Amino acid sequence: MAPPRFIGLTGRPLSLAVSTVATTGFLLFGYDQGVMSGIITAPAFNNTFPATKDNSTMQGTVTAIYEIGCLMGAIFILACGDWLGRRRAMIMGGVVMILGVIIQVSSESGPSPLAQFIVGRVITGVGNGINTSTIPTYQAECSRTTNRGLLICIEGGVIAFGSLIAYWVDYGASYGRPDLTWRFPIAFQVIFALVVSIGMIWLPESPRWLLTRERYEEGETVIAALRGLERDDKETQLQKTIIMDSIRASGFGGRKGTPFRALFTNGKTQHFRRMMLGVSSQFMQQVGGCNAVIYYFPILFERSIKQSHSISLLLGGVNMIVYAIFATVSWFIIERVGRRKLFLWGTVGQGLSMVLVFACLIPGTPGAAKGAAVGLFTYIASFGATWLPLPWLYPAEINPIKTRAKANAVSTCSNWLFNFLIVMITPIMIARIGWGTYLFFAVVNACFLPVIYFLYPETARRSLEEIDLSLPRDIWRR
């Protein structure tokens, strides 16, 4: 009997196909994260939507409203993710994003063009919220222990490559016709959404999800296909047994859905503590200032460092190249160094970078402002190498199989809620307190260090089932 196949693939090629589609979902996430940075102050965009012209509050609202949609998508997965499954959720997320893009790019000058654009932003955000709540879980549940951290870090890292593509598409489109300046960059993301939605039609469902739904034969088939083995092979049966033991140990064996109250239990399963670790990692990623830099880098250069719009866009593109290069660092060290040390190193790098930025902006001279530019570059390098991928990996690892989907959705809700807050207030903070904005982020990063050092366990080099089963004591050792 030959190993089972999906789209004609089995073993390593099938695992590569799964990772490619999952990674494209995060490439789309990164693209959407960066695309508004070069559009929001573009004259053509401001002429189509006059309310955004020279209005930092409205610029923040139009940019940040996307995060509200993402939050809604994450809440949807929190409520329906266990029922829907990983595969169907990802197909739905891509389709919803395409619908939102169509609504955005079809906005025309008229009585309420901005309202239509905002509705499109929210709908696109819903699709992205569905994907970002689902993809890390799907990737983790389809991966081997030896490369799980690497694969999810690659997912997180390609967020930077998505933002890099967005910045340079914005820069190139700025030299085209007025409509091209903003419609083409927004429409371009449809390509990535199609890859996710169409690709998942033929790829397998998560074997762990299938087994929790008591679809044992399908679960065996997917386990065998991902490993390139026959269904009755000893390793296939061993892996199935380990997963089933983990499901029973979770305390909710035999149920096809996980009740919400399971998220708030402690005892030997520590569900609540696990969930809060994931939530806190996403919270700290956002309030550490990453999107203040990613979304508004050109605006930071225009208003804080006094550069022209064109030069600011160009420097934003260069900054994204630095971001993308350093995002690959974690790919090579994540399993060797571990999660805790990368969290700590990244926090120190981000905090010191923000100290450099605010210190160099205090004098208010062009020469000193160049030092602030260096600080923004070192910040994005530190963030890209550490805090960019880790909060997407950590919740998918630390939460047990029965609460993984819901707990991961809660942590993603945390990401989008505070993402919205930071993106909304950053242009207002820059306009009103100037260099104090960067002092604020420096202090916030300093506050992260004791939390990570004393509360975050290491998960490197452990299987998901080992993390599930060995939780009570030894996993919390540093």
Helix vs. strand class: mainly alpha
Helix amount, in percent?
A: over 70%
H/E element order: HHHHHHHHHHHHHHHHHHHHHH
How large is the count of helical segments?
22
Give the mean pLDDT.
85
Q: Over the alpha carbons, how many angstroms does the gyration radius reach?
A: 22 Å
Strand content: under 5%
Task: For the record, give the distance between the C-alpha atoms at the N and C termini, rounded to a whole number.
Answer: 46 Å
The count of DSSP E runs of length 2 or more, i.e. the number of strands, is 0
Spans of at least 5 consecutive residues with low confidence: 474-478
Describe the structure.
With 478 residues, the protein is mainly α. 74% of the residues lie in helices and 0% in strands. The chain contains 22 helices and no strands. It has helices at residues 12-35, 43-48, 56-84, 86-105, 113-141, 148-173, 178-187, 190-202, 207-212, 216-227, 234-249, 271-287, 290-294, 297-303, 309-327, 329-337, 339-361, 366-385, 390-398, 404-433, 436-455, 464-469. Helix 3 packs antiparallel against helix 4, helix 10 (216-227) packs across helix 11 (234-249) and helix 19 runs antiparallel to helix 20 (404-433). It is globular, with a radius of gyration of 22 Å. The N and C termini lie far apart (46 Å). Residues 474-478 have low confidence and may be disordered.
